[in-house]
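Q: I'm writing a short explainer about Heme haloperoxidase family profile domain-containing protein for a general audience and would like to include a description of its predicted shape. Could you first generate the structure from this sequence?
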Amino acid sequence: MKIAFILETALFGLAAASCPFGHGNHKYQKPRPEDSRSPCPGLNVLANHGWLPRSGKNIDLATVRSAVAGAYNYAPTTFDEAFQMALDVNVSTSGNSSTFHLADLRKHNAAEFDGSLSRNDAYFGDNLHFSPAVWGTVAERLNLYDAGDCNRDTYVTVEMAARARAARVQDAMRANPNFTNSKLAMEGSPGTTSLYLTTLWDYEADGAPKAWVRAFFEDERIPYIEGYQRPKTPRNFTDIGNMNARVLAVDAKA
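A: Of course. Here's the predicted structure. Afterward I'll give you a sentence or two in plain language.
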């Protein structure tokens, strides 16, 4: 089963590198060298599909609202506070105080923090780009490359995601002598797990399909070809908060 998943990933990577695909005006395209991308897979996904500017530059609030509603069916104002927080810590290099480039979000302990699920810590020199080594440890703990024999084995559960996140933070704390236990990190780390779960959640199965999680993190694309459909019911910050409570409940039992 694991070999089949790896082969599937390799074949998809070859196809994705050669041609765009997707839905209408929002086809998936890998970023060009001059495009700006962030440490946040969810924002990169939006840019790779053209919901945000494909350049990843000069992102304003109206564009974020339209993107999260159009791609993920979040209420448009769900991330207004997060957007304003990024501006308040002066990450922007766009020359416009009301916009930022995606790469601006790499500013350490401002918008980005140690213990990312898919990026290395700033201490090691690159907190911006996807790290196969870091993500590999998380993917292994999520058992992403083995769907098992039962339908339930094809989903990431809250418990799996929470434990994988906590283990990743512990790995980072051991490896990074400058690991920062900031308020941003301690609240943001479980929050980012709650966010990706809410975004990819199958409420009937009470889990996030493993294939969707892989596409989201490894290819930074919306998993349309794996069966993702935009939810019919809008979600908002309350839904993310409810998921966060479930993640924290698992942490409390550890």
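A: For your explainer, you could say: The two ends are 30 Å apart (CA to CA).
Q: Perfect, that's easy to follow.
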